[in-house]
Amino acid sequence: MPKTPSSAVKSAEKPAAQAPAADLSADFRQLYRRALAQRSDAERDVATSAAASEAARTLLAERWAATQAADAKRGAKAKRVHYLSMEFLMGRAMHNALAALGLDASLPATLGKGAPSLQALIAHEPDAALGNGGLGRLAACFLDAFATLGLPSFGYGLRYEHGMFAQLIQDGRQIELPDEWLRNGNPWELLRPELRYPVGFGGMVVAEGGLRRWVPAETILAQAYDFIVPGHATERVSTLRQWNAQPSHSIDFAAFCRGEHLAAAAHLLESERLNWVLYPDDSTPAGRELRLRQEFFLVSASVQDMLARHLRETKDDIHSFGRLNAVHLNDTHPALAPAELMRLLLDEHGLGWDEAWAITRQATSYTNHTLMPEALETWALPLFERLLPRHLEIVYEINARFLAEVRARFPHDEARVARMSLIDEQGERRVRMATLAVVASHTVNGVSALHSDLMVQTLFADFAALWPERFTNVTNGVTPRRWLAQANPGLSALLDKTIGDGWRADLGELKKLAPKAAGKKLGQDFLKTKQANKQRLADYIRRELGLAVNPDSLFDVQIKRIHEYKRQLLNLLHVVARYQAIVANPEGPNGQGWQPRTVVFAGKAASAYVAAKQIIQLIHDVARVVNSDPRVGDKLKLAFLPNYGVSLAEIIIPAADLSEQISTAGTEASGTGNMKFALNGACTIGTWDGANIEMAQGMGEDNMFVFGLRTEQVAQIKAAGYDPRLHYEENLQLRGVLDAIVGGAFSHHDHDRYKGLVHTLLTRDPYLLLADFSSYVATQLEVDALYAQPAAWAERALRNIAGMGFFSVDRTIGEYRDKVWAVPAKR
Ligand SMILES: *Cc1c(COP(=O)(O)O)cnc(C)c1O
User: What NCBIfam families does UniProt report for this protein, alphabetically (predicted)?
Assistant: First the structure.
C-alpha cells in the first residue's frame, strides 16, 4: 500500500522567505534598448518582444550563476535532484519571467513612451510546446516549484526542433502541421558551448583487462542549451537543460571532393534527425527506433553531465554519488538512466557490481503515470541489442540477480517469475521498461491517491508483495503563479483584496475564503471578474470561428487531449440530447425555459488515433447543425477551438463556469486540468476518478457535481459481462441521440461516417459511456438549476477555490523532497 493514506492532507509547503528584490527597472530598460538597437526590424512587435526577452534572460542569467554557486557549496546537506523527462510543456516564458523580476506591473513606466504593452510583448512569443499534455505540463510546473522552493536541481530534456504539432481544422477534420517554434530563434535559451557529450549507438562489447567496454559504431554529440526558469518571490532560478544532437565530425571532405555531396553529409542528417520531432503521442509507445534513440540520447547525455558535475564538486569522489544525487524518471521514457549509470560506474569508473548497484538504487526513483496496458513501454530485444549491446548485458545481469531474489522469496512459483522478469518471454521477446524502472528505484510513486492504490493492486501487485515499502503516492499539483496570478489577474486582485496576497507562495491560504464564501458582495465581485474573462473568450471565439456566443450563457468547457477514456464523446452525447430536447420542448425541462449554454471543446488527437479524430469531426458536424438552427438560438452553442496548448488554456480556463472531468472511473491517473479550472472558480462536473476525488474531499463532496460509476462498479460490470445495448434499448433519450448520429442527422445524411463509432458504443463501449449517460444528463440538469441562482453559484465556486490549497505544485514538490528524494529541507 502507498505510505500516505488519501486523507492525509498536509498544509501547503511554504517557500523560503526572501528579502524583497532590488528594483531592476533601470537595468532592464538599458538591456532592452541595447538589444533593440541590434535588430534590423526595430519597429516591429516581433523585435520589441525579442529585445524584452533578451533583457529578461540576461537578468535571469545572473540569478542562474548565483543559484549554481550556492548549490555547489551546499556540501552534503542536500541532494541535488535531476528530473529526467522526454517532455516539458512550457508554454510562453515572458509573463512569468517579468513577474519574477518584479517588472510586469511597471512595464509601461519602465520602457517609456511608445513601448509595447505587456500583452503585445506576450502575443508574439510562440509556445514552447515540447510535450503532449498533462505529463509534460506537470514537468514544467515542477521547474517552477524547484526554483520557488530553492531545491538544488536540474530538469533534463531534449531540444526538439519541432514540438507538439500545430492543429488546423479543415472541413471539420484535424490536419497536423509542423510546429515551427524555433523559426525566430529562442531568446530564452543559453547555448553552453563547453557542455557537450558523446553519445554512442550500436557497435559491440569488448573485454579489456577484466572490464567490459562498449565500442559504439556511431557517436553523436549532445550539446547543452539551458532554459532558465525563475521562481516566485526568490532570486533562485531553475534550469531546464535541453540536449541538441550534433554530428561528431564534419562533412566527409574526400567524398565531397569526388562530387558526392549528399553522401558527404549523410551522417549530418542522421544525427540531426534525432531531435527533429517530439513524438506526438503520449500514451502508446511509438515502437520506433528513433524514439528509442531519443530516449537513450536524453539519458546518456544527462547522466554524463550529472556525473561530471558531481566529480567536480566532490573532488572525484564517485562513491558519494548516490548520497548526493537524485535521478528521477518521469514515466518510463528515461528508464534507461539506471542502466547507463551502471555502465559508467562499472566500465568507466571501475566499480564492482554491488557498489555500482547500491549507488544506482540510492539515486533512482520513478513516477508511474498510467496503468493502461497498451501504454506500457517495451522494446523488442533485437532492436535493443543492436542499438545498446552493453546495456542489454547489464539488463540481463540486473534481471538474473533480481529473479534470484524473487525465487528465494517465492519458491516454486515460476508463473510469478515470468510475470516479474525484465524480459517478456511471450511471443517476440521484449524488454519491459516499467519493470526496469521499478527494480532500479528506491521509491515508486503514482500521481493521485486512487491511482497509487490501483497501481499497487494491479500493475505492480507482484512488486508490492515483494517490496511494499517501495511504493508511495504524491498527488499532482499546478503552479498558482502561471495558472492563477498570471492567467487571471482579475480574480487574483479580488483574492488579494479579500484574503491577502499570501496565496501565491502558500496556496493553503485560500481556505480563508471559506468563511466568506456566502458573502453577497464577494459573490457579485467574483461573478464580475468571471464575466470579464468570459467576454474575452467570447471575443476570441468570434475572431477564431466567426461564431457569436452569449457571454451570459453558462460556459461549459472540456479541454484536454482527445482520448476515448477522457470521454469527450460522452460530453457530445449530452450536447446532442440537449439539442433534441430544446427542439422538442422549447419551454424547458420544467417549463421555465432552458439555461443558455456554450459548450467549448479544445484538444489534439494523436495523428494515428482514428477514433479520436472521428470524435473531433463529430464535434464539428454537430456544431454546424446546432449553431445554425434558428430554433435553438443562444440556448445552445458549440465551439471547438483549434490548436489547444498552454497559451490557449490560459485564455479558456479563467472563463469557464463548468469544468468537465468525466473520464471513466479508474482511468485518469490524476489530471491537472481539473485543478486549474477549480482554482479559477469553475465548478466541476466529474467522475470519482484521479485527483477529482481528493479535490472533492478538499472542497466538500457536496460542492462538486459528481456522477457515474465508481472504479469498483466499473470492474464489477465488466466482470459480469457488460452489454451496452441494454442501455440503448432502455433509455429513449440515449436511443434518440445514437439514432440521429448514425442516421446522418449531423453528417448530411452520410450514414457511414459514424457507423463505426456508434457500433463500438453499442457492442463494446470499453469506457462505459452508455452506462454513465443517464447519470451524466441528470447531473447536467442540476448544474443548470444551480447556475440559475447566481448567488448560490458564486458561493459554490468560491468554496471550490477555498478547497484548492492542497493542489499547489509547491506542496507536491515538498512531498517529493520529503518522501521520494529525501532531500533535507533547507534551513
Ligand atoms: C493542464 C494541461 C493539460 C492536462 O490536462 P488534463 O485535463 O489533466 O488532461 C494538457 N495540456 C495542456 C496544454 C495543459 O495546460
Answer: P_ylase (TIGR02093)
Q: What is the CA(135)–ligand 1 centre distance, in A? A: 8
Number of separate helices (H) and strands (E) present in the chain: 34, 24
Please provide residue 110's backbone torsions phi and psi, each rounded to the nearest 5 degrees: -65, -45
Q: Which atom of ligand 1 is nearest to the CA of 644?
A: 13
CA distance 85 to 227: 14
State the angle between helix axes of 790-802 and 520-545 in degrees (0 to 180), rounded to the nearest 10.
90
What's the whole-number mean pLDDT along residues 776-788? 98
pLDDT at position 823 is: 63
Residue 792 neighbours by CB distance under 10 Å: 14
6-20 per-position pLDDT tens digit: 333 333 344 444 444
Query: In 10 A of CB 184, how many CB atoms?
Result: 14
Residue with CA closest to ligand 1 atom 7: 673
Q: How far is the CA of 288 from the centre of ligand 1 (A)?
A: 26
Which atom in ligand 1 lies closest to the alpha carbon of residue 645?
A: 13
Q: Could you tell me where the beta strands, DSSP code E, fall in 568-609?
A: 597-602
CA proximity to 129, closest of 81, 174, 195, 177: 177
Model pLDDT for residues 587-608, shown as the tens digit of each residue = 999 899 999 999 999 999 999 9
Q: What is the mean pLDDT of residues 788-809?
A: 98
| Residues near ligand 1 (Cβ within 6 A) | 89, 133-134, 137, 560, 645-646, 649, 671-673, 676
Q: What is the residue-wise DSSP string for 6-42?
A: TT--PPPPPPPP-PPPPP-HHHHHHHHHHHHHT-TTT
Task: Decide: 79 and 363 in contact? Cβ < 8 Å.
Answer: no
Q: Is 29 a catalytic residue?
A: no
pLDDT, tens digit (0-9, with 9 covering 90-100), for 449-506: 999 999 999 999 999 999 999 999 999 999 999 999 999 999 999 999 999 999 999 9
pLDDT tens figures, 379-408:
999 999 999 999 999 999 999 999 999 999
What residues form DSSP beta bridges with 158?
Answer: 243
Q: What angle do CA 89, 681, 519 make, to 5 degrees?
A: 155
Residue 283 has a pLDDT of 64
Average pLDDT, the chain: 93
Q: Which domains does the chain have, with CATH numbers?
A: 485-813 (3.40.50.2000)
Three-class secondary structure assignment of 334-393: CCCHHHHHHHHHHHHCCCCHHHHHHHHHHHEEEECCCCCHHHCCEEEHHHHHHHCHHHHH
Q: Give yes or no: 561 in active site.
A: yes
